[in-house]
Amino acid sequence: MPTQIKICGLKDEAGVDAASRAGATHIGLNLYEKSPRYVPLEQAAALRMRTPEQVKVVLLLVNAEPGYTAKALEIVKPDVVQFHGTETPEWLRVLKGATSVEIWKALGVKDAETLKNSARFVGAADLLLFDAPAQALPGGTGMRFDWSLLAEHRHELAWGLAGGLTPANVAEALRQTRAPMVDTSSGVESAPGIKDMDKIAQFCKAVRDHDHS
Ligand SMILES: O=C(O)c1ccccc1NCC(=O)[C@H](O)[C@H](O)COP(=O)(O)O
Fold first, then answer.
1. Which of 36, 63, 141, 189 shows its CA 20 to 30 Å from the CA of 85?
2. What does pTM read for this prediction?
3. Poorest-confidence range of 15-19, 60-64, 148-152, 168-172?
């Protein structure tokens, strides 16, 4: 199975086109207003329409109100909704019962305990995205966590790796972790919130080269 690739924090058509052309399987649209990668709802809906059918659209929310969450899902109609705040398994279970959209939960990995506790999302999320712990922002920090923690972990859910992944280190990350999915945002940018089309292509190529090695 080819590694799944999510390019997160796209804000315009050029980024969506570049990620799709490069072979990303998922693109992320960020509705968190404090992020340099924020897109307003209407822009997210327009980019969703622009995205080719084979590429899944991931809508990113951080501790959003239920009403706003419902509105965002209705307007953008994503394939996946990624929760990147302190959303509880209980809340995600409620949402899961009310929508057919795929649900991902991002977790900032501090230590082995974070991974152990992630089992509480079984039945609440379809996939766990293991990311670096929150800094000033909950995600998109460009920081890595200790990948060796994953070696001891028995995954009970589908999962992906995020946090500080770049074209230069993603092959090594895949070798060490055997992640079925990788996610990057700042690692394919020239400045916060500004995607670099060449880096997107290099990232996807590095993943595909690793898949074929
Ligand atoms: O990217 C952001 O600005 C962001 C802000 C708030 C919550 C989540 C955010 N990004 C979520 C992602 O899925 C990123 O791709 C992930 O955190 C990895 O980011 P990076 O370390 O920059 O590759």
1. 189
2. 0.96
3. 148-152
